[in-house]
Amino acid sequence: MLETLGIQWPKLIAQLINFSIVLFVLWRFAYKPVFQLLESRRQKIADSVANSDKIKAQLAETELERKRVLAEAGDQASKLIEDARAAAARVSEAETQKAIAAAEQIIAKAREAAMRDHARMLAELKREVGRLVVQTTATVTGKVLTAEDQKRLAVEAERQIAA
Hints:
By secondary structure, the protein is mainly α. The chain has two helices and no strands.
């Protein structure tokens, strides 16, 4: 029946052997290396995807660390600013206290100087009044007063001014 279809057994077997040889050669030298190449590429792609996932995880971890470090740096900066403000307030308070103390010293010295000037001027006034009393007495009485009289009148005038 195969012969009616034009199929001859010897040619069919030869063709099968030739096809098997070509198939073996192609399989050995073409398909197998191509399949190995495809398998290695698939493995590289899988490794790349795994590395990509690792890198994404590391990136997320790094981003969290960066945010933590930034928050910590912000906290430290705020603390430093507060410390600086407190130090400035302390320095300002200390300077204010120094200025107040210096002002009080200046006021005390000015009062002492004023009191000394007042006492000096009062003493000068007493001497001048005493001298004027002696001079007026000498002029009014018309006589020359002795040194002892002048001294007695000056002392008496000073006593009356002091009272």
